[in-house]
Amino acid sequence: MKTNKILIHALAIFIALITLVPFVWMVSASFMQQGGANQFPPRLIPESFSLEHYLRLFVSMNIVRYFLNSLILSFSITALSLLVNSMAGFAFAKFYFPGKEGLFKVLLAAMIIPAQVTMLPLFLMMNQLGLINSYLGVIIPGMASIFGIFLIRQYITSLPDSLIEAARLDGASDFQIYWRIVLPLAKPILVTLGLFTFMGTWNDFMWPLIIMTRENMYTLPVAMANLSGEHAQDTELMMAGAVITVMPVIIVFLALQRFYIEGIMLGSVKE
Amino acid sequence: MSPAMFLAPALLLIAVFFFLPVLVSFLMSFTDFDIYSLANTSNARFIGFDNYKNLLSDPLFWKAMRNTLYFVFLGVPLSLLVSLGTALLLNSKLIRFMSLFRLAYFLPVVTTLVAVAVVWRYIYHPSFGLVNYFLSLIGLGTVDWLGNPKWAMLALIIMAVWKNFGYNMIIFIAGLQNIPPELYESARIDGAGKWQEFLHITLPMLMPTTIFVSIITIIGYFQLFAEPYVMTQGGPMNATLSIVLLMYQEGFRWWRMGYSAALAFVLFLILFLATLVQLRFQKRYSAV
Question: Which of A25, A125, A136, B144 is the most exposed place for a label (fewest CB within 10 A)?
Answer without folding.
Answer: A136
